[in-house]
Amino acid sequence: MQSRKSPSAGLPLHVLRMTVPFAMAGLCLWAIFTRIELPSLADLGGLLGGLQMWQWLAACGATTVSFWALGRYDSVAHRHLQTGLDGPQARRAGMAAIAFSQLVGFGLLTGAYARWRLVPGLTAMQAAQLTGLVGLTFLAALTVICGVAMVLFPVFAWFPPIGALLITAALAASLLSFVAPRLDFGSVSLRWPSLTAMAALLVWALIDITAAGTALWMLLPASLDISWATLLVVYAIALGAAILSSAPGGTGPLELMVFSLLPAHDSAGLLAALLAFRLVYYALPAAIACVVMVVPERLKSTRAPLTDPDLLGAQQRSAETLPHHRLRAESGVIRQNGGHIQAFGFNQLALLDSPQISVALFDPMTGNLKETLTPLQRYARQRNTAPCFYKCSARNALAARQAGWAVLRIAAEAVVSPIHFSESGSSHRQLRRKLRHAEKAGISVRPAPPNLPLDQMAALDQVWQDRHGSAHGTTMGRFEANYLTMQRVFLAWQEERIIGFVSLHTAETEWCLDLIRICPNAPDGTGHIMLRAAIAAAREDEVPRLSLAAVPDHRLAPRMDQGLRRFKACFAPDWQPRYMACPTWADMAIAGFELFRLIHRPGPVYPASLALLHRQNGNPGTDRGAETLAWQSAQEAQPGSAHSAARAS
C-alpha cells in the first residue's frame, strides 16, 4: 500500500535536527558572553604568546596519547561487533573519524562516513553500528568516570551525592548486562558489551579523558592556579555536555560548563587556555584527519588477516565433526548447547562461546592443553570475553598453573572401570542392597530400541522436571530427541511401563553418564540397576573407562545436593579432582558467575544436527549401530530377572 505522505513530509523534522546543534552552540556562546567580560584581541594574543614552547609540546604529547587511546577504543568496538577488521588500520581510522567528527559535528553521520571511507571491507551499516556503539559506550564510560571523580574530588558540595548516584546507575546497568545479555525491542535485539569489554572501554576512556584534560591543564596561563585533579573533573563534566549537545566540536557547551564550574578564576586566562586547547586538540587533529579523508590511500594498508602466530592454523568446526576417538566422551554435550570444535593446529577443544566467556569444556579432545593456552586467550580477546577451561584434569590444571593461570578445584568426577567392576566387597554393600530392592520390585533394564519411545521418555522427563525443577543445561545435557538418538540409552521397565531411563555419551575409550530420569513413584534402586546395566554393556564392548560425571567439590559443596554424591558413591568409584583455570582471578570471577548463570538459566536447547544423526545411522561402527546390536542381543537373551537383563545388555 502506498503511503499518503508527501516526500517533503519529514522535511521540517530533518531541518530541525540539523539546526538544533548549531542553535545550542549559539545559545551557549551567548550565555558565555553575558557571563564574562571578553578580553581584547591584544590581551588574548598576549596570553597565548605567554605560553612556553614546552607547554605546547606537552599538550601535543597529551593529545597524541588521547587519540591513541581512542584508536584502541575502536578496536574493542570492532571486536564486539565481530567485524573481523580489528587491527592497526581500524585503530588509525577510528582516530581520524573522531578527529573529523568532533570538528564537523553530527558525530553519528560524520563518524560513520569517515570509518566507512577509511576501512576497506567495512559496510555502511557496520560503520553506523560501530559509530553508534562507540558514542553510546563512551558516554556511559564518561558517566562512570565523572561519578567516581565527583566522589573523590568534591569541587562542590553537591558533587558526592550526584557522583554516588551515577556510580549506582552504572553498577545496576552492569548487573543487568550480565543477567540479561540481550535486550529485545520488538524485532530489534541489542547485545550488551561483555564485562571484559566494559572494563577495556572504561580503561581506554579514562586514559583518553585524562590525557585530554592534561593537555588543557598544560595550556593554562601562569596567572591561573587550578589543580590538575580539579581541572580533570571539570573537563570530564564539560566533555559530557559537549557530546550530548552534538554541536560542532562541542563549541559553546564545553566552554559554558568550564566557566560555570570555575567561576572564581580569571575568565580571560581560561578563555585563552580553551582557545589554545581548541588549536591543539581539535584543529590540529582535524587538519590531519581531513588530509586522510581526501587521500584515504595514505591510511589504507592491506586488510590484515590474523597474523598472530598463536592463531595460525586455528579452525572452527561444527559439532557434527565431533570425533569418536576423543579422550572425553562428555564433550558430546556441545551437540546441543551451541558449542563447536575449535582446532588450534592439532589440538582440538570443545568450545562454548557465551556473552561473557569462551570456555573450553573438560580436557582437550585431542592434543596438548599447554599448547592451547595462549591461542585460547587470543581467541577470547577477539570476542572481548574471558578465556576459561572448565572441569579439566589435575594434570592439565598443573600445566595451566605452571603457565601462570589461576586454578581452582571445583568438582570431583566419579570414574569406574567396567572391565574390572565387581559388586562384591564391602565397598559395594549399599549397591547390592539397592539392587535387591529393584529386583524384588520386578524391574528389568534393557538397552533402548533403535527407534526410541520418545513420547514416553518425554512424558517421564516432564514429570521429573515437575518434581525437581527445570533441568540444568549448558554443561549438562537436556532432553532432546536428536541428541538422545546419538547416545546409548537404557530403559527401566516395571511390567509394561517405562519408569526410568539413563543416557550416556560414548567415545572410543570412554562412556559418560549424561541424563538420568526416574519417575517419582519408582521403586528404590531403580537408578542403581539402570547404571549397573550400563556398566555391564560397557564391559561387553570392552570400554576401559566409564564416568559417572562430576559432583561439586568445593567449600560450598556440603550444602549442595548430597543425594547425587551418595548415589554415585554406591559404585565405589575413583574420585578424580576436576579444576577450573583462567588467566587471572578476575577472569575466574567472571567465568564462575557466567557458568552459574548458563547452568541454572540455560537458553533454548539447540537441536542436535540431523546431518550427524543420518551419518551415524549409516555407520554400524558408531553409537547408534552399537545400540542396535545391543537391542538385538537383549531381545535374544529373553531376560528373566534384573540381573540377567543387565548381563544381556
Automatic annotation (TrEMBL):
<protein>
    <recommendedName>
        <fullName>N-acetyltransferase domain-containing protein</fullName>
    </recommendedName>
</protein>
<dbReference type="InterPro" id="IPR000182">
    <property type="entry name" value="GNAT_dom"/>
</dbReference>
<keyword id="KW-1003">Cell membrane</keyword>
<feature type="transmembrane region" description="Helical">
    <location>
        <begin position="133"/>
        <end position="157"/>
    </location>
</feature>
<feature type="transmembrane region" description="Helical">
    <location>
        <begin position="164"/>
        <end position="183"/>
    </location>
</feature>
<keyword id="KW-1133">Transmembrane helix</keyword>
<feature type="transmembrane region" description="Helical">
    <location>
        <begin position="53"/>
        <end position="71"/>
    </location>
</feature>
<keyword id="KW-0472">Membrane</keyword>
<feature type="domain" description="N-acetyltransferase">
    <location>
        <begin position="443"/>
        <end position="585"/>
    </location>
</feature>
<feature type="transmembrane region" description="Helical">
    <location>
        <begin position="226"/>
        <end position="247"/>
    </location>
</feature>
<dbReference type="InterPro" id="IPR016181">
    <property type="entry name" value="Acyl_CoA_acyltransferase"/>
</dbReference>
<dbReference type="InterPro" id="IPR024320">
    <property type="entry name" value="LPG_synthase_C"/>
</dbReference>
<dbReference type="InterPro" id="IPR051211">
    <property type="entry name" value="PG_lysyltransferase"/>
</dbReference>
<feature type="transmembrane region" description="Helical">
    <location>
        <begin position="92"/>
        <end position="113"/>
    </location>
</feature>
<feature type="transmembrane region" description="Helical">
    <location>
        <begin position="12"/>
        <end position="33"/>
    </location>
</feature>
<keyword id="KW-0812">Transmembrane</keyword>
<feature type="transmembrane region" description="Helical">
    <location>
        <begin position="267"/>
        <end position="295"/>
    </location>
</feature>
<dbReference type="Pfam" id="PF09924">
    <property type="entry name" value="LPG_synthase_C"/>
</dbReference>
<feature type="transmembrane region" description="Helical">
    <location>
        <begin position="195"/>
        <end position="219"/>
    </location>
</feature>
